[in-house]
Amino acid sequence: MDRVNEPIPVSRAVDHGTAKLMPDVDRKRAWLLTVDGAPQSYVDLDEPTHLEFEYARRLGHVLDTVAEPGRPLDVLHLGGGALTLPRYLAATRPGSRQDVVEADRGLLELVAEHLPLPDGAGITLHGADAREWLEAAPADSADVLVADVFGGSRVPAHLTSVAYARAARRALRADGVYLANLADAAPFAFLRSQLATFAAVFGELALIAEPGVLRGRRFGNTVLVAADRPLDIAALTRLTAADAFPARVEHGPALRDLTGDARPVRDEDAVPSPEPPDGAFGIG
After folding, report:
1. Where are the beta strands (DSSP E) in the chain?
2. Domains of the chain: residue spans and CATH
3. Residue whose C-alpha is closest to residue 35's, from 154, 177, 188
4. Which of 16, 130, 153, 268 maximizes the CB count within 10 A of its CB?
């Protein structure tokens, strides 16, 4: 075996921890990004439509259903990681214009150096705080806003409030769609507060999650979808049910039941998402 050109792991101190890029031995140009041991992204440079993480596939399903196939979109990504979803959109919706906002400039530099974007991808990177960028963004400028921001393994508090949700709504066009990766476990105090918060700003909500998470059996990721237009629940249900790890799409009365008596979050009361239990996102 020729080991001269085999990819080797990369480890570097970035602004908010230690980032590692580890090659996948089963896929020639695929990499796992971790920060302080927590998996952040998985990218296959030869096959950008391959979404390894379950939550990323669910975000991808929503992105596939927000407009007719192949139609270019203007997309704002809060949180960069290894740019998995921007690469996916560049491949599935060529001509899309995408802005990626990542607070960790060192991480952006690492990814740009070792996992470069293809020429003409239409992806622009910005080193900035997600909420500050969002509040300065032009109104009605995005078709989709994807929030996948974690400080370590927790969603920062300032990205959980009604004021933040309103800033997201302002940046979106009238038929725009907001997506967020959120993590929680029963009794879902954080998740329920986010449902109440976004229901106070958007007219339509959906939640995608594994049944085991919704039943309180384990900590896990959920995908929140919010819009002021009808969501294609039927298509999302079909796509998520066909995954290797099927998920459920909750909306309407079931989602209101899950929200219960939770109240929208004010800036002064905002807290980060809960700390995952040891091993919740272990990579082996």
Report:
1. 10-14, 17-23, 30-35, 38-44, 74-78, 97-102, 123-127, 142-147, 172-184, 204-209, 220-227, 248-251
2. 45-269 (3.40.50.150)
3. 154
4. 130
Cα-based angle 172, 266, 148 (whole degrees, multiple of 5): 45
Structure tokens given for 258? 């899950």
| Residue 61 CA: distances (Å) to CA of 64, 107, 279 | 5, 26, 27
User: 67 exposed, middle or buried (CB, 10 Å; 0-12, 13-18, 19+)?
Assistant: middle
Measured in whole angstroms, the distance separating CA 229 from the mean position of its chain's CA atoms is: 21
Residue 224 phi/psi, 5-degree rounding, is -95, 130
pTM: 0.94
Q: Are 137 and 76 in contact (CB under 8 A)?
A: yes
Which pLDDT belongs to residue 280? 60
State the Rg of the chain over Cα: 18
Q: Token pair for residue 77?
A: 């990504």
Give the pLDDT of residue 3: 54
The whole-angstrom separation of Cα 218 and Cα 215 is 8
User: Each residue of 55-109: pLDDT tens digit?
Assistant: 999 999 999 999 999 999 999 999 989 999 999 999 999 999 999 999 999 999 9
Q: What is the mean pLDDT of the chain?
A: 94
CB 210 within 8 A of CB 222: no
Interval 199-227 mean pLDDT: 95
State how far the Cα of 40 lies from the Cα of 187, in Å rounded to an integer: 25
CA 119 to chain CA centroid, Å, is 24
- Helix, strand, or coil here: 151? strand
Query: For 218-238, what is the mean pLDDT?
Result: 96
SS3 content of the chain, % helix, strand, coil (to 5): 30, 30, 40
